[in-house]
Amino acid sequence: MIATLGYAAVITALFAAGSVAFLGARSAMKREPANLALPVAVLAGASLASFVLLEIAILSHDFTVLYVANNTATTTPLIFLFAGGWAALEGSIVLWGLLLAAFIFIVSRTSSGKDTLGTAALAVMAAVAVFWFGLMATVANPFAVCTDVTNGVCSASSWWPLADAVAPLQGRGPNPLLQNHILMAIHPPLLYVGYVGLTVPFGFAMGALWLKQTGRTWLDRTHRWTLISWVFLTFGIILGAWWSYEVLGWGGYWAWDPVENAALLPWIAATAFLHSAIVQRRRGMLQSWNFMLVIATFSLTLLGTFLTRSGVIASVHSFTQSAVGPAILMFLAVVVVASLALFAVRAPDIAQAPRLDSLVSREGFILANNLLLTVFGFTVLFGTMYPLIVEAISGDEVAVGRPFFDRAAVPIALLLLLTIGLGAVSPWRVAAPSLLWRRLRWPIAIGLVAGALTVLAGVDEVGVVVTIVLGAFVISSLSLRYIEVVSARPEPLFAAMAKVGKGDPGYWGGQVSHIGIALMAIALATTSGLAVREVVSVDVGGTAHAAGYCIEYVRSFEEVQRHRTVSGVVINMLDQSCSDVRATLRPSVNTYPGASQPIGTPDVWTSFSEDVYVGIAGGGADQILLNVFVFPFQWLLWLGGIVVVAGGVIAYWRKPSRRREASEQVTAADKEASDE
Amino acid sequence: MSDRLKSTLAIAIGAFALVVMVVGLASTGSSDPTSEDRVAALSVSIKCPFCNGESLADSASGVAADYRALIAVRVAEGATDDEILDEFAANFGDSFILDTSTSGWSVVLWLAPVAMLAVGIIAIVALRRSTVKRTGVEP
């Protein structure tokens, strides 16, 4: 019953998306007013229905639905049951469709029928939705039913929801890794919002090319969308790193795994786009480059989805192999070819008046930032795809891993930090050397002093010292600039502080994000360059020394929960002399029924100067083998991430008045172009 | 404080800090990596067999833990990093060595980003040149 209703909702959404795409394209082409309210409402309603019905099927344990039987169980805790709605392949596409439909709905609310650019953008976005709902209707049907049960598992299924369905007594339950930590329920949807949100600037860019409105209108109208998608993408990636740190037990948060790269690539492209869009808005440069970047960003979200869904690259994050992979690859090819072709056809219409008055200027440094981000993105993309390319050409199997990515990323990241510190305090057009020196002399001194203090504190890793010099330079350069602007105002201190921030939230929000990036860079350096890793064996009731601590193995424990068995040990962390208990940790190994491998779960003690990260490496009840890792200033990484996200949120409140004008009336140049 | 005095002070503080930093870094020299450091570094450079493409360091699986223990044993026995990498390459194949800096194919991998950077720099310089040519202004 639920399967039939759910499939009907998918088909309804598919047709509604098709109608929006067709009607929108027709009106945009004829430049006639469009009335898309009805099909858009149907699309939104039907996609919501498909999501809700899938959740009902999961929460009511309707194991006749194949997806429910394969990915959830009656013993699954409620939160992971709910997250089961998007934790596996078909469900993730349902959530994807829902988010895209929601964005189409919101965009349709902000554009009137007479607004041809908005209509064209809706048509493009709806065409993308046709693909996703088409996937659900065919190869990734979330409402396929189970038609035969062997040994308690579904052995045959039918995509046709009215087929005779049978239900296994118990579902298989989710992948143990996915139900070991609450973050796994939060991190993927955040990434999806970011991924799907990037469809909006793509839709507007394609609409603008199509209608020859290649001025800045499309940028003005999508700036907030890009920013909000970027904020979600950033937050999603950081939470993913945190999950990896808390759950995977190796003490790391980034492994340059292909699927991690797949999330990073659109982030890099979107970051470059956010910056280059500012240059076009302020200086009328980079029109073509912005179209290229938005095409690249959207294509990279599809590539990322393909890498995650197809299983073409072996990765911990991948779902199982299915026909979904080739379908997404085909769609990616269509998107890339069609959008580049449209861009090529319209290239003569794109106004070209680049005027770079000086390399030493805000736009000069943003150009440098874009170049570095492009090289960074290209390096990550090339490194990720390289094994596939080499294997296709020569048949040789090669592997590209952390050694390559770390070595390539570090110099690029350090140069990026430098451009942040220089660019953010440079004026547009030309930065006079005397002005730049006045703004940078103290930041340079502060950066060097921070480096000297680091060395005096006993750090001898050159990479860590250089990162701290640049990080302190960036943070002090931006902070001193703020203090300078605030103190130049006549109001009392706090009023002036608020006034400056409110005066240009776009700029100051960006600077807050930059400070967050600098904090993250410092934390990346300290946690990788200064980490201590030791393995120690302790008898029950006894103590041992490791990583500057005295470690006491108090007792072992076992806790049987509904969906898993937790076997752990109680560990006291004492000071060197074994007299003072600083913290008590409970690392464990969790066993899930039906899973071949137990999942180690570390426990972490965070103090101001370091994280002590303890996991079980082996041993038994009498003698335990522990991994004891120390990561200096690990918390700075998470704090920096939050600061980056907060900066994005501040920038969101940028000048509402000017934007409203822009969205309601097409700028004069665009009007002329489209009236031709 | 006059502007000139501020500049002088900033230069003096910066230069002093730079000297402290350089002398400090030069005098400590690079300390020899501990056995644990070497095991950690080697684990990053070797792909875990049967672990979905993760390195030995990144995998939470028991197999990876066993191989990490094996590396620790070889390090304790006095094997060099290259010897250990060679042993893994001999047992599992070159594609299990993630440190690509030495294989022949990796030249392309390393040159591609550098080429990209060069193209970008040329494009930006060309943009600047064309501005000068068009406007005739040399600021």
Q: Would you give an account of this structure?
A:
The complex is a heterodimer of chains A (676) and B (139). Chain A is 61% helix and 12% strand. Chain A has helices at 2-30, 37-59, 66-71, 78-83, 89-109, 116-137, 183-197, 199-210, 217-247, 258-283, 287-310, 324-346, 362-394, 402-423, 433-456, 462-487, 493-503, 505-529, 634-652, 656-664, 668-675; strands at 145-150, 153-158, 532-539, 543-546, 549-560, 565-574, 581-585, 588-591, 599-601, 603-606, 610-619, 623-632. In chain A, the strands form three sheets. In chain A, strands 4, 5, 6, 7, 8 and 9 form a six-stranded antiparallel beta sheet that branches. In chain A, strands 3-12-11-10 form a four-stranded antiparallel beta sheet, covered by helices on one side. Chain A has a two-stranded antiparallel ribbon with strand order 1-2. In chain A, a hairpin with a 3-residue loop joins strand 10 (603-606) and strand 11 (610-619). The termini of chain A are far apart. Mean pLDDT of chain A is 87; it is low at 657-669 and 671-676. Chain B is mostly helical. In chain B, helix 2 crosses helix 3. Chain B is flat and about 65 Å long. The mean pLDDT of chain B is 81. At the A-B interface, helix 13, helix 14, helix 15, helix 16 and strand 3 of A face helix 1, helix 2, helix 3 and helix 5 of B.
Strand content of chain A is: 5-15%
Largest protein interface, residues of each chain: A-B, 70 and 68 residues
What radius of gyration of chain B results from the CA coordinates?
25 Å
Order of helices and strands of chain B: HHHHH
The residue-averaged pLDDT of chain B reads: 81
- What is the multimeric organization of the chains shown? heterodimer
Total count of helical runs of at least 4 residues of chain A = 21
**How many helical stretches of chain B?**
5
**What spatial form of chain B do the alpha-carbon principal axes imply?**
flat
Instruction: Round the mean pLDDT of chain A to the nearest integer and report it.
Output: 87
Please report which band the strand proportion of chain B falls in: under 5%, 5-15%, 15-25%, 25-35%, 35-45% or over 45%: under 5%
Tell me about the biggest sheet of chain B? none
Main sheet record of chain A: 6 strands, antiparallel
Question: What is the rounded distance between the termini of chain B?
Answer: 31 Å
Helical percentage of chain B = 55-70%
